[in-house]
Amino acid sequence: MSQLPPCPQCNSAYAYEDGSQLVCPECGHEWQPGATVEAGEGDKVIRDAAGNQLQDGDTVTVIKDLKVKGSSLVVKIGTKVKGIRLVDGDHDIDCKIDGFGAMKLKSEFVKKV
Prior knowledge:
Family: Belongs to the YjdM family.
Largest sheet: 3 strands, antiparallel
CATH topology of the largest domain: SH3 type barrels
Protein name: Alkylphosphonate utilization protein
Pfam families: YjdM (PF03831), Zn_Ribbon_YjdM (PF08274)
CATH class of the largest domain: Mainly Beta
InterPro entries: YjdM, YjdM_C, YjdM_N
CATH architecture of the largest domain: Roll
Structural class: mainly beta
Shape: elongated
Distance between the termini: 36 Å
Order of helices and strands: EEEEEEEEEEE
């Protein structure tokens, strides 16, 4: 039986296969086997909700209705965001959304197009 790699997020040894992806039962992280990118010194790999690696300039879509803090506006599911910029911090995507202006998003709520 082949040895499965540990979870890249929490290093749990209990990862299991689910179709073509690997799943961690402890933290719920899902990733593609063999697609783990080793981050070099100071490099941080940011992935979308599906596990795809994001880069500056990518186009993404929102996968969940997101309330805009401080207003009654809502960014609807399926909203396309072009030309993202990756930054450090809790909200790791800087972008401009038509009708909303400049905004920060978490990568867990977007999917690469």
